[in-house]
Amino acid sequence: MRKKKQTIKITALILAKNEERSLPRLLDSLPWVHEIVVVDNFSTDQTVAIAKQYGAKVISRDLIDFSSQWNAGLKLATGDWVFTFDADEEVPPESVAFFQKAYQEAADNIGGFRILRRNYALGRWLKHGQQYGKQVQWFDFVRRRRGYKIGEIIGGAVKLFRRQGAAFENLVHEEVRVEGNIVQLQAYVNHYTADSIQEIFDKVNFYTTLHAKQIYEKNPAAPKWFYRLILWVPIKTFFKAYFRKQGFLDGFPGLARCMSMFIYEFLKYIKLYDYYWGMKKKQGGK
Asked: How far apart are CA 31 and CA 70, in angstroms?
């Protein structure tokens, strides 16, 4: 008599704050998961009520940094695998089968999968300006030797992983540390990143504050050529995204996105200045 194959369970782990407009779209795309956990940053709208209507476990806690939010959610998760989502994301129907096959048939040495993200901003899908990933070309011999095929996309983040032994690191642009190898999946989630210019730059301001703090905590000494970095890195970032990666092909939304990348880098270094020289003043230095 054959043994019945054990069901491999998956938990959807979501971070949210005042996401009553976006959250239903995400939750409607997750009927295939076994459990939903929402870590809420004390929303003042109907976010928590909506999550509970879908049967989600909800925990409310202040956002100190993103890694601590994810790690708090991991403690509530019971699935063998975890799929992380921002509340403004969505799983398109064409990707579901890829994700299910990936975690259900994963070899024991695989700890997680890197997932592509298709960005939608200001009424348009952003297909250029390094918004989706890097396509493997015929001349990309290094990646082809690693097993990638011509035409495959490399990029995204590790969003689907085994729960056992997983933990998040970094205050912002957080990454999950997993036990085992990481595999690139040719499947994506939709990310509805911003409906307005105001929303784009509110996010830039918020994330750069955390990013500057993260850099300072890892390296309290100001880097050499700091003043040159303030201008060089933002300019380099913009030109790479807008011209080399053809962000201009996405029209005005592409320009706005690439400019936000410029401003992000500029603000990050300006805020670092506050840490490096502000701290020096407090300590009585010059």
From this structure: 21
